[in-house]
## 1
Amino acid sequence: MSPAQPSGPDDPLAAPIAQRQAQPLNQADIALRLAQTADRCVRCGLCLPHCPTYRHGRQEAESPRGRIALIQGWAEGHIAASPRLRGHLDNCLECLACETACPTLVPFGNLMDEARAALLRQTPWWRRLLRRAWLLALASRAGAPLAAGGGLLYRATGLAGLATWCGLPRRPSGGAFHRLAVQFGRLPRIRRSRHAPPVAEAGLRLGLFLGCIARAAQPGAIEASLVVLRRLGLIVDIPAAQGCCGALHRHNGLPAAADQRLRRNALAFAGLTPVGLASACLAELRLKPELNQAWDICRLLADLDWPAAAPLAPLPLRVAVHVPCSQRNRLRDEDAAFDLLRRIPAIELMALPDNAFCCGAAGTYLLQRPVMASALLGSKIASLAALAPAILVTTNTGCALHLTAGVREAGLSIEVLHPVELIARQMRTLGETEPGP
Ligand code: SF4
Ligand code: SF4
């Protein structure tokens, strides 16, 4: 059993990552490669209706076709790297809805990553340093404990209440940080013991990928994963040397830092099959040949033969399923959460309307482009208000944070969970022996 892999088109920027790393290029070579890849776009416009930023403002420069033309114009020397050009490229969520809709298979994600990296190299040194510094704070080993401690302090000292009283949550920039800070507060309780029931699937020795900030953002989902995997008889290690997957760096123009993180994780997971909870992290891990068998926990649990001794209690509630862009367009497995949750008897599953459009979280986008992020979140919240589910599930950490914030601010009583948390909860509901995380 191995996860399905999306195939890439035949293009210089669609080559396997290891191959691309083996060819150090100068700025002129990179510009040529960008121009050649952008030239694959035939300007048909079929991607436009799929683009959330184009749908929002109907501007050509905010569409995939427009962005490709801007990259090409800059790479060929016809357009300067002005703040306006950078703004149009930075407004891109890298949701890849355009890439999946494109008939000529333009590798839009790789094109945008490389364009951002090339543009960042042209910025003053202090800007690059600043970007590295805040990404390091977010994605280092210390990031999750700091976020958890900071979130706790923020609430305990009354600062969160004061910020709310001052109307900070309604302001785009400070509001984005506030919305995240109020959700952090603890780290997962992880027992590293491997005392588990017998292995259900021969040869599958799993390593749970924890991510970076996800440890502070979704401690319950990590604990639930361990409970469910071990209850089903799988051996699960938690490699101590693992770290951030590098996706935040790659999409912020720092591919070398991203590749370094992939190499570290490849070493940490040697001899193990990685399994992860966050679709964006999994998509990034799969770029590395040594990690391309990384399992999405929903797909793994959906496809596994469950022992008869692990039934799930019925859940006669409406559950809405949000499908993150990384789940749909990078992992190319939009049914994973549905397939898993259908195991729960009596559950009423519903796809969140407009699942094909990004919620606005998009990694660090919710912090960097809070106005657009909030606008995109607004339509998800409106759909949720109309659907009125008891629970909303999503398979990506950033989306979970963003949607939780939106649900709270709209005053909706909808619980936001990872699908595996719901599975663990229904196992517990039957009062089975709890192996503990
Ligand atoms: S990646 Fe998403 S936001 Fe960016 S151009 Fe494509 S569809 Fe639009
Ligand atoms: S669908 Fe593809 S070829 Fe057509 S405009 Fe969009 S990116 Fe270009």
## 2
Amino acid sequence: MSTDTLTPDRIARLQDEVRALARERGAVVLAHNYQVPEVQDVADFVGDSLGLSREAAATDASAIVFCGVHFMAETAAILSPDKTVLIPDPDAGCSLAASITADQLRAWKAEHPGAVVVSYVNTTAEVKAETDYCCTSGNARAVIEAIPEDREILFCPDMFLGVWLERVTGRKLNLWLGECHVHAGIRPADIERWQAQAPDAELLVHPECGCASQCMAFANGRTHILSTEGMIRFARQSPKERFLVATETGILHRLTKEAPDKRFEAVSERAVCRYMKMITLEKLRDSLRDWKHVVTVDPQIAARARGAIERMIAIA
Ligand code: SF4
């Protein structure tokens, strides 16, 4: 039975099984904001990459089940080498992380000797091992601002986030031309249509979006470029009632839970990450029951990647 056809009773039963197995196994369940609602609802902690990394580093549970994509589980494994990290579906990848390899990054570094490498957290462990600072959209600006002004910076792999960072920090960055197919698919035309249809709404845009740089160009007082956690904070605190959201549609569930008196609509209903949606409640239950799929990182790669990830966690 696919998750799409789950009845409320079956969802409740599976969630009970997951909770019982997690307790029995001493595992904490972490879920990304883009996960399907029934997985978010059973998790011990739901958040963005930065929040989940912090939680993975801080938890005293002996095992972590990571409901997200593979690089996120890998990051948790690097931060917690003494813990077992499981991912319910090992094929849950990321088109953005796949857009740069460690060999490509090494070649790029060779062309810019002495440059500081800042990698978005959506990268493989091998790429992180070649990186000075990791960042997420939640702290990318602070990471760039922490680097001395006279240092050349290579930023990879997301070009849209990179363009946004150049704009908000005033720094010139060397950008890798990678993109997330989901966010790149949210086009300026989607934004324009909504701006016309909902002039009373606040527009929340993730900086990875293909529309983000254009949004900056015609930004008005009601356009806000924010990480997913930033969107949640903003919506909770805002006196406004209606919000248009330009990121993966899984965030709508979390936003609606956190600010139930407000109205949230996706700028593009097509913005669905098939990798994130590969994690289902059944696979989560099976993962805990059958103790699969264990995520491991080569200890030498992990040792080199850990410094960049720890710098990311330390910078607010
Ligand atoms: S939404 Fe994009 S960046 Fe996020 S996991 Fe999916 S493919 Fe990767």
